[in-house]
Amino acid sequence: MKKWSIAVLGVVLAMVALTGCQSPKAMAYVNGTQISAEQYEQTIAGLNDLGQPLSPEDRGGVATNLIQFEIVRQLGADQGITIPQTQQDAALADQVNQAAQAGVELKGGSLDYYRQYTEATLLIQAAGQQEAAKALQEATVELNPKYGAWSADEQGLMSAQSGKGSLSSTDAQPR
Questions:
Q1: N or C: which end of the chain has fewer CB within 10 A?
Q2: Cβ atoms within 10 A of the Cβ of 145, count?
Q3: Could you tell me the end-to-end alpha-carbon distance of the chain, in angstroms, rounded to an integer?
Q4: Side-by-side strand order, sheet with 26-30
Q5: Lowest mean pLDDT among 8-12, 43-47, 91-95
Q6: Any domain includes 89
Q7: Which tens digits make up the pLDDT trace of 67-83?
Q8: What's the number of domains the chain is made of?
C-alpha cells in the first residue's frame, strides 16, 4: 500500500511540475508574486461589460497585460519609483474621457484594468523604455497553461508615450 501511495504522489508531483504554475488558483506567478485566477476573471468580466464578450485572443492579451503590469510594478518598486496619485488620477481621467468620447463607460472591472494600465504606463515613462524591456526579458514568469503561453521574446512591451496625459502602446493597449 505504501508503494502505491508513493507512486501516486510521484505522479501528482510530476503533473504539478509540468503545469508550469504552482496553484490552480493562480493565473500566473511573476518573479514569485501571484496574479490570481480570480483577478483575471474579474478583469475579463469587467472588460466584457464594455460591450461585446472578449474573444479568446483578447482574453490571452488580458493575461499578457496583467503579467506586464506586474513586471512594471516590480521594476518601479526596485528602482524606488513612485508616481504621485494626482498624476495617476489625471492620466486615468484622460483615459476615461477618451473612452466616453467613444461612447464607452469605464466602470468596475474595466476601470480597474485601465487604472493598472495607467500606472504601468507612467512607471515605464519614469523608468525608461529600455529598463522596462530589460525587466520584461529578465522576469521569471510561470503562466498557468489554461491562460495561454508565455515567452518574453514574443511579448511586445507596452510603449509609454506622453502627450497631454494620453497613453498609448504598441500592442498591449487595453481592449
A1: N
A2: 11
A3: 54
A4: 33-36, 26-30, 141-143
A5: 8-12
A6: yes
A7: 999 999 999 999 999 99
A8: 1
Rounded Cα distance, 1 and 149, in Å: 38
Q: What is the C-alpha to C-alpha distance for residues 44 and 37, in angstroms, rounded to an integer?
A: 10
Distance of CA 139 to the CA centre of its chain: 13
Return the CATH number at 92. 1.10.4030
| CB contact at 8 A, 52 and 128 | no
**C-alpha cell of residue 8:** 501516486
Query: CA 146 from chain center: how many Å?
Result: 15
Which amino acid does the sequence have at 136? Answer: L
In a domain, 63, yes or no: yes
Residue range(s) defining the domain that contains residue 124 = 2-154
Helix%, strand%, coil% for the chain, nearest 5: 60, 5, 30
pLDDT tens column, 132-159: 999 999 999 999 999 988 887 776 665 5
SS3 readout for 49-68: CCCCCCCHHHHHHHHHHHHH
Q: Can you name the residues that pair with 36 across neighbouring β-strands?
A: 26
DSSP 146: G
Place of cell 508574486: 33
**Which three cell numbers, joined as nine digits, stand for 60?**
490571452
